Amino acid sequence: PDLPAQRGGRAMLPEPAAADKATLSFLTLARFIAPLALTDMIVDLGEQFLNAGIAHRGNATLVLAGFGLAYSLVKLFAGLLVEMKPVGLVLVDSRHARWAVLRTLFGCFAFSFVIFFLLSFTALGTYTIEKFHRTGPEVAAITYNAITHLAFFPLLDGLALLHAGILLRHGRHADTVAMASMVDIGAQAITVIFLLITGYGTGLFLPVTATYMGVTARLAICLHAYYRLVHGKLPREGEQVLTPRQVLSFVWPLALVQSAQRLSRPVVNLFVSRSYQGPQGVAVLTLTYPLAHLPYGWLNEIKPIAPAFCKEPNQIREFSGDIQKIFKFAVGCCAFSLMLMFLCFWTPLKTIVLENLIGVSSVLADGTTVPLMIFTFFPFPVSTRAFLTSWTTALKRTSVLAPSAIFRLIAVFTACFTFPHLGVDGAAMGVAALLCGFVTECCVVICCFSYLKLRLLPREAALARTAEAASLLPDEPASPVRAGSAQVAGQAGGRETA
Q1: Phi, psi (rounded to 5 degrees) for 11
Q2: What whole-number distance in Å separates Cα of residue 340 and Cα of residue 335?
Q3: Residue 288's closest CA among 386, 366, 342, 189?
Q4: Within 10 Å of residue 489's Cβ, how many Cβ atoms?
Q5: Pick from 302, 362, 366, 355: nearest CA to 333
Q6: Coil/strand/helix, residue 246
Q7: pTM of the predicted model, to two decimals?
Q8: How far apart, in whole angstroms, are the C-alpha atoms of residue 186 and residue 446?
Q9: Contact of 225 with 162, CB cutoff 8 Å
Q10: Which conformational region is residue 4 in: left (phi greater than 0), alpha (psi within -120 to 50 degrees), or beta?
């Protein structure tokens, strides 16, 4: 292939093709999101496959509980590394920017590694795992061991997500990113089957090995695709010099929102376990959440659309052009997801899936009726939040998303305390509390979006126009009267000196 043109010692990106300059179509957006949405569903199914592999070995209950708790804690305390995909999608426009992000990533990993060490070998872990989560000594020991073995997983995951974001930004290689995630799940499945057949999958060895094999395969594909498709086309330096401080200021609100979302479900499980239904409510909630997440979870893949397709800052600020087309596409995705939810959970298809395919008892299936009906309304806040997150990410104003995380947790706690007094209990209470958290978060994001679009951006645009007009004005010539006065004063000063 032809080498990129050289100018001033820096590799220049090729001119955009005519197709990129054409009007954005719904078919293009559908082709972009389809592999990502399919991958999201496959990942949900892959996690259940890993759990099934653990369940076929001895001490399955203890290993499931310990590994699940360790995995959730690792993902929680590595929040910045989990959000590297939008960083690569928005900030990496040159090789220098990629190197700045890599330095930030390794610094965040060092900080997370210290936290993992404290959780595994100090009293912080004892308080967090044994006292706060109320685990027994056997589950706690497995959790400590799992955290130690999973310490390097966030680094590999962050590197894979970073280069996945770069692939989506430069060339929109959504199919390659989706293939990498599918290979991740395939590698886990092959590892689980091999270890079960050979008899080596005892204890934590099976889930830890399968997890590392999957993320390593995904990272290898993302790195290979990056160096093959993108690296040679990136300029050495971008329009602006990116620093680790700028990377952190961009990513910390996204990590805060993600942490709040990860905390919501454990909080709900805690209140449901202490409710009247107790363990049965937790069992129903554990069954319904992954099942309900399939028809609406893929709506989160709307987030990378605006940064990938909208390169005109004026269109993003004015909410016009391609942004309006993406908004209409998000509305269509919400309607499609809502139709799937009604089809799956308001018809006899629900009973067929639960009793015939999954094999749960009729009593447990009846307990999922109300929670699944409540889940039906999740596409409204999820799609709205995903689109506004996409818009603010493309605008590089992620800080406006930070308040929504705090209000989400407040809403979840308030709902969990209030609903039992209103007669809502068990899994229905938990799902309703999650819906309150989603709706509250969505409303706060809408308020912040309105302030940013109607007040802050017009004010900044007016200041920019004023500064530009002032810079274009010619220098003011000296007034003749002032010039004559200055000449007389100079002559008088000369006589005094003489």
Answers
A1: -70, 135
A2: 9
A3: 366
A4: 10
A5: 302
A6: helix
A7: 0.80
A8: 39
A9: no
A10: beta
Please report which confidence band the pLDDT of residue 20 belongs to, taking 50, 70 and 90 as the band edges: very low
Mean of pLDDT values over 84-102 = 90
Nearest Cα residue to 337 out of 40, 86, 23, 43: 40
What tokens does 240 get? 């602006």
Q: How far apart are CA 109 and CA 154, in angstroms?
A: 7
The Cα–Cα gap between 396 and 307 comes to 9
Query: Structure tokens of 204?
Result: 């934590």
Distance CA 243, CA 97 (A): 8
- What whole-number distance in Å separates Cα of residue 256 and Cα of residue 251? 9
Whether 295 contacts 344, CB under 8 Å? yes
Which one, of 74, 47, 214, lies nearest residue 149 by Cα?
74
Nearest 10 degrees: Cα torsion 14, 17, 20, 22:
140
d(CA 115, CA 492): 77
Q: How many residues does the chain have?
A: 498
What's the mean pLDDT in 61-81? Answer: 82
| Tens of pLDDT, residues 98-144 | 999 999 999 999 999 999 999 888 888 888 888 776 777 888 888 88
d(CA 192, CA 214): 11
Contact call for residues 165 and 87 (beta carbons, < 8 A): yes
pLDDT in tens, 404-461: 999 999 999 999 999 888 888 888 888 999 999 999 999 999 998 888 877 777 776 6
Beta-bridge mates of residue 169: none
Angle (CA) 272-118-81 rounded to 5° is: 75
- CB proximity list for 199: less than 8 A, separation 6 or greater: none
Report the C-alpha gap between 136 and 120 in whole angstroms.
15
Residue type present at position 67 = F
State the DSSP H helix or E strand holding residue 442, giving kind and residue range, or none if neither.
Answer: helix 426-451
